[in-house]
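I need you to check the entry underneath: sequence plus fold tokens. Let me know what the token row says about the fold.

>
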Amino acid sequence: MKTKPLFLFIVLLLSVAMMIGCAGTRQKIQIERLDDLPRHTYTIDVPVLELFENEDLLQDLMDEVNADLLADLEMYEISDATTLQGFYGDLGTIALLEERWDDYLEYLELRRELEDKEPTRLIMGMFTRAYITALRSGDDDLRAAFRREYEALVRALPYEDVEDELKQTKGQTDIFSENLILGIVESRIQPILEESGGEMSKDIATQIIGMNQTIRNYLPYTDIISEVLGAFIEENAVEKEDIWEEREVTLTESDNAQPVRIAVWDSGVDADIFGDRMYTNPNEIPGNGIDDDNNGYIDDVHGIAYDLHANKTTEMLYPIGEVSDRPRLQRLMKGLTDITSGVDSEEAAELRQTLSQMERSEVQPFIEDISKYGNYAHGTHVAGITSRGNPFIEIVISRLTFGHTMIPECPTIENALRDSIAMIETIDYFKSIGVRAVNMSWGGDLASIEADLEANNAGGTPEERAALARRIFEISRSALFTAIENAPEILFITSAGNSNNDVVFEEFYPSSFDLPNIMSVGAVDQAGDETDFTSFGKVDVYANGFEVPSYVPGGDTMNMSGTSMSSPNVTNLAAKLFAVNPDLTPAQVRALIEDACDDHAAGERSVRLINPVRSFELLEQRF
């Protein structure tokens, strides 16, 4: 099962550009899902870093990619706006590198027309618009001209609408460096090309082109971007209103409520933090290495766990392994979160210093270690949000294991079958102990499986690889869908995703599942404004997923962002409703949550924000 935790801990903006394609008059082929698009491959016979030094080699690749992008736009009718934006973005990046400024601006305008998240649309292409205007000004001091144009665009923005986006842009800019980008090229892309004999997919080719754009055109101006954004943010430093505190429902021991079992299906939980709020199996003797209750699990005192290969294990917390300096990794993790959220902290300063001094050879171990720590902390953070303000909750640990390496393990049918069995067994376990709701802050998708096959030079030709990815995907997806469908007594709550994409078009699971006992949750910030990262296509409700505080292993607290954090806010509400009225069905709890939602403006659309206080008012009225 190709899964990944759905929270944000590192963001690398590797290309900024968009443009327009040519459309013919022939009948176009309708594209209903991402997988229907053709595969394109490109071959280079030199180390990939030479494409960052040799203009002719890069131009050859751009010519091939540009021709394929335009041909696809002429041949296919693509219904998905995000996918179209990607096409225009790739064409625009090529236009920038070829100094075709008018073409770039046309593609950018097309992309802006497709964007329905107003804050994202407002800031889209700001760097490149200022850059092109400065180049055309004839000013001998190009940096001064760029500063002037960029500052004018920034100061024309309605700050209250774009505050989060500007802070994230500044944060991303602050962690960019040539060594960081080229370190990723060396440790992620070069090994793939060595295995494949220099053959690469369009996705990798456009990554290389985008990285070239970032290094050549963007990095020389990051100091100006950071200074301008920093000054604008500081001048408008008014904390956004937090709408969530007044909506919060807190249960106390004196409330008339019953214990409720809620599973956190995630990367594991530090049970010591939660004490008597943990589910405890009365029929299992802790630590004796025996399956005392004969249920197929050894020492399932607080729940169950599976390792990366779907083997049962007794470790309830993600095994961080050989990483010995956990306090430092925790600080760096917090620094990443602070930087991308515009928080100036000691941890943020430490991270900036670490990145500024980082050699290319240090990039891979740094990213893999911090990814491993992110997995280690993820489940505990989710559990803290899920259990907040509820003394009646019994947290059931259900650990699955996410990968963390830059070159992932190779997906196989055998592993997919093992994962499927583990998923079915896990949901059967939930049913056997009376779990009422499950939080699932993770997901998988077809494209990631295909990318991982390519990363391991597996699956044959591009067409054969796509077919194998589909088989692997369907095994895991079908097993999970059927297992959830066969557990109507349990409410499953999942994160929508962090890719600003249509989860139905891109076949993302479980958030695309359309079942009465599963809810998909999008992310908004403290003021209820839609985040720029939250996915869409099938989102039932929205909750706070921006800078949400909770525990990490060991008991410290940290803010994290992502739909991984919005989902447990909904699970938290469901758990409280079940605790106060144990006779409620999943359908009734879902109705109490959805019917109580407020509509909140999101550009020309609206998003539905949960309102726990109102849900409890409806509970009292209806039951």
In short: The two ends are 40 Å apart (CA to CA). The first strand starts at residue 4 and ends at 5. DSSP finds 20 helices and 18 strands in the chain.
